[in-house]
Design goal:
Elements: H1 10-19, E1 24-33, E2 43-47, E3 52-54, H2 62-75, E4 79-84, E5 100-108
Antiparallel strand pairs: 1-2, 1-5, 2-3, 4-5
Domain XdhC- CoxI: 17-84
Organism: Shinella sumterensis
InterPro entries: MoCofactor_Util/Proc, XdhC_CoxI
């Protein structure tokens, strides 16, 4: 079950989760091309139970980002992810609007 907290700042949620002892990763939109639905600087925070808050793509690639974030939480190794209609992930995940997006995922704390 997803523990989405509507209308909260994902950074506030991340800090609240960390203070309660949860392991947390943050995904940040670094760069976009074309008509990507979220601007650079947008955030998605994820805890080790796959609860999340925020958005990096308006729902287009969140599932893939959450999966990668869980790996980042367990290994502690940050990742740079890129999604779009012109790469090898286009048939698994993609931006319905046709844009491209680069997302940096790192563990907090």
């Amino acid at each position: 079950m997803n523990e989405m907290m509507m209308d909260l700042d994902p950074l506030v949620t991340a800090e609240t989760w960390r203070k309660s002892g949860r392991e947390v990763a943050i995904a940040t939109v670094i760069e976009t091309w074309g008509s990507a639905p979220r601007p650079a600087g947008s955030h998605l925070v994820i805890d080790s139970d796959a609860n999340f808050e925020g958005s990096v793509s308006g729902g287009c690639v969140e599932g893939a980002v959450i999966s990668e974030a869980l790996d980042v939480i367990s290994t502690g190794e940050a990742k740079m992810l890129e999604f779009g209609v012109a790469d090898e992930t286009a048939w698994r995940v993609g931006l319905s609007c046709g844009g491209r997006i680069r997302v940096y995922v790192e563990r907090l704390g």
